[in-house]
Hints:
Distance between the termini: 22 Å
Radius of gyration: 17 Å
Shape: globular
Strand order of the largest sheet: 3-4-2-1-5-6-7-11-8
Order of helices and strands: EHEEEHEHEHEEEEHE
Low-confidence stretches: none
Amino acid sequence: MTILLTNDDGIDAPGLAILTELLPEALVVAPQTPCSGCGHQITTRHPIPVETRSPQRYAVQGTPVDCVRLALGHWQPETTWVIAGVNQGANLGVDIYQSGTVAAVREAAFHRIPAIALSQYQPAGQVIDWARTQRWLARVLHLLFQKPEPGSFWNVNFPALPPAAPEPDLVFCPPCTQPLPIRYAATPQGFLYQGVYHERACDPTADVAVCFGGHIAISQIRVC
């Protein structure tokens, strides 16, 4: 396999670090700074500066989709898998439309390249145990590398569990169709979003309910 790694939390993010440790031969092309929530934004009207960290590692002053497009068009056109993450925070259900992490693998799917988006749910105030996430990550990659699906991508979300909790099940499920909360507070500066992520509505057997229920949610999204 010829693998490309990227993310939307930035090239120095811990989630990308644990992914790189598992796949040390992969090419890493990631945003120089965090750009979470940028969706499928691309840069076409000005040059994209790139910092070469090593022959296999590039920091791009652009979006996750810019990173994938540059890698496929310039550094590694023979890429056979694109993997994005591990995102710090979940990308469940309708989150996939705003997530830069998911946009990166959607771009890969447009090019008929199998791809996986990986995210770690993080409730407010909790610290992520990245070593545990890495252990789950190894299980997921071992499984999904056996399921290349050109024209689609896998969206994976790891749950937030207590330290002594048993290992979570891997559950294949559809993405949730329910909207995010739209609660806002009026302030002198304007309206401030007050929606609470873990209080979102959810379809009972879809990815939000699965991940919030303590399991690893795996959804296949077809784009072509």
